[in-house]
Design brief:
Blueprint: H1 2-6, E1 8-18, E2 25-35, E3 39-43, H2 50-57, E4 65-70, E5 73-74, H3 79-85, E6 86-88, H4 101-111, H5 116-129, H6 145-155, E7 165-169, H7 177-192, E8 196-201, H8 204-210, E9 213-218, E10 221-226, H9 228-234, E11 238-244, H10 247-253, E12 259-261, E13 266-271, H11 275-285, E14 292-299, H12 302-312
Parallel strand pairs: 3-8, 3-9, 6-7, 7-8
Antiparallel strand pairs: 1-2, 1-4, 4-5, 9-10, 11-13, 11-14, 12-13
Helix pairs in contact: 4-5, 6-7
The structure holds adenosine-5'-diphosphate and magnesium ion.
Length: 330
């Protein structure tokens, strides 16, 4: 176990945080562990507390209680050492728009203390590694969203040694699918070189593609944690939609559903999609064969997966009565 422990680069226990009025908790005891050469996704909807968690770990804000160590340093008492060990996307929002990508990186390399020749070499190396060589001589303001984010990441790497811990807060939000894939490759590359990466995302697909471990954060709590495979195995891959014949049946079955449409008396219930399970579900939900008018089976959406995970722990937003439409989450 001790070897494994030495490889833990980000470790948090019981982080809590409220803003302003005490009592309105944004984080309710968040714990995390991220290993060297690992990608850990913090998956959750808007407002779940992802950015707050990252800001605490990156020493930009403090928790009300709980402890966290990053690269072996305490985020409160060893703040300076933590800052030297990490890279946080967005922290170089100070990219100069009027400079070229190359000029930006050279300037930052110089600021980080590299002599001119080394700064040039380092900038060239990073432009190459992040697929920006062709755009190196263009002003940063002409860059696409994806290119900007890659330049931003490169900027976090100019110093030496490279940081061992990366915090990427929703790095692909707003990017087109191709830019997203390019950025995924960059993130994988960081981990392959040995970094610990904590990435926040609202997209299950992204967490699934990139992460070795996923923590699902909902309303300030980790409601599920594990490898993508174990999490996916906890939710069924399909949804059985039942169109009910009466409102009583709708209300009776609503708590089991991950999808609610009260106007059409339709409920979606997780299933693995096999004939055996669908048959069993139909028999179980409608033993007298009077309550279900029609049904359909289709692949679960990301919303379904997220709702199923959060509903298991009772922190989901699927209501007790199911009379409101469940909001879209992931
Ligand atoms: N500086 C702040 N002051 C007051 N409330 C805040 C502040 N920052 C975040 N919040 C609130 O904390 C909750 C979690 O926010 P955040 O950590 O940004 O979530 P996420 O990044 O998952 O969207 C939200 O309800 C948000 O409105
Ligand atoms: Mg956020």
């Amino acid at each position: 176990m001790s070897t494994a422990m030495r490889d833990v680069m980000i470790e948090a226990h019981g982080l809590t945080k409220s803003y302003g009025k005490p009592g309105v908790r944004v984080l309710e005891g968040v714990g995390l562990q991220v290993a060297r050469a690992g990608i850990h996704a913090l998956l959750g909807p808007n407002g779940a507390g992802k950015t707050t968690t990252v800001r605490i770990l990156a020493t930009l804000t403090t928790a009300d209680s709980g402890t966290a160590r990053v690269a072996g340093y305490d985020v409160v008492t060893d703040r300076r050492q933590v800052r030297r060990a990490i890279s946080l996307t967005g922290q170089f929002a100070a990219l100069d728009e009027t400079l070229t990508g190359e000029e930006n990186l050279r300037m930052m390399a110089r600021l980080s203390g590299l002599p001119l020749a080394q700064a040039r070499a380092r900038a060239g190396e990073l432009l190459e590694r992040f697929g920006l060589t062709d755009a190196a001589r263009r002003q940063a303001r002409t860059y696409s969203g994806g290119m900007r984010r890659r330049l931003d990441l490169a900027a976090g790497l100019v110093g030496s040694p490279e940081p061992g811990v990366f915090f990427l807060d929703e790095p692909t939000t707003g990017l087109d699918p191709r830019s997203r894939r390019e950025l995924w490759q960059v993130v994988r590359d960081l981990a392959e070189r040995g970094a610990a990466v904590l990435l926040t995302t609202q997209y299950l697909e992204e967490a699934d593609q990139l992460a070795d471990r996923i923590a699902v954060l909902n309303q300030g709590r980790i409601v599920a944690e594990g490898t993508p495979e174990t999490l996916k195995s906890r939710v069924s891959g399909h949804r059985l939609d039942l169109v009910l014949s009466n409102r009583e049946a709708y209300l009776r079955l609503a708590t089991r559903a991950v999808h609610h449409s009260p106007e059409t008396l339709t409920l979606g219930i997780p299933t693995d999609g096999t004939a055996a399970h669908v048959r069993a579900l139909l028999d179980e939900t409608d033993p007298h064969r009077t309550d279900v008018d029609r049904f359909s089976v289709h692949s679960a959406t990301l919303d379904d997966v997220f709702l199923a995970l959060t509903a298991e722990t009772g922190t989901g937003t699927a209501t007790e009565t199911g009379t409101t439409e469940a909001p879209s989450h992931v």
